[in-house]
Amino acid sequence: MRTDSEWGCLTIIIILILSMLIGGFCWKYSINTWLQFFGEAPAVRFYQGALIGLIPVLGQASLPVAVITWIVSLFI
């Protein structure tokens, strides 16, 4: 049987892994889309986006930024 502190630690690890996965896809998409719009070569890789996803405020902003990027790219 797991103790409460073990469940808490496991929960934090799962949240960090999810943040890395979401950040890896969303930040890579968002930054590379804007780089292409401004005429630069796409430069962000999955692991770089995953590291950005670990930063508390930026990690939480990854989904809204990706959605806004997608909506704006429909009109550009």
Can you describe this structure in just a few lines?
This protein has 76 residues and is mostly helical.
How does this model look, in words?
The protein is an all-alpha fold and 76 residues long. It has one domain (4-75). It is built from four helices and no strands. It has helices at residues 4-37, 46-54, 56-60, 62-75. The longest helix is centred in the first third of the chain and has 34 residues, at 4-37. It is elongated, with a radius of gyration of 15 Å. 18% of the residues are buried. The model has no long low-confidence stretch (mean pLDDT 93).
**What share of residues are in beta strands?**
under 5%
**How many helices?**
4
Helix content: over 70%
Write down the overall geometry. elongated
Query: How many structurally independent domains?
Result: 1
Structural classification: mainly alpha
The residue ranges in which pLDDT falls below 50 over 5 or more consecutive positions are none
End-to-end CA span? 55 Å
Return Rg in Å: 15 Å
Task: Give the secondary structure arrangement, pairings included.
Layout: H1 4-37, H2 46-54, H3 56-60, H4 62-75
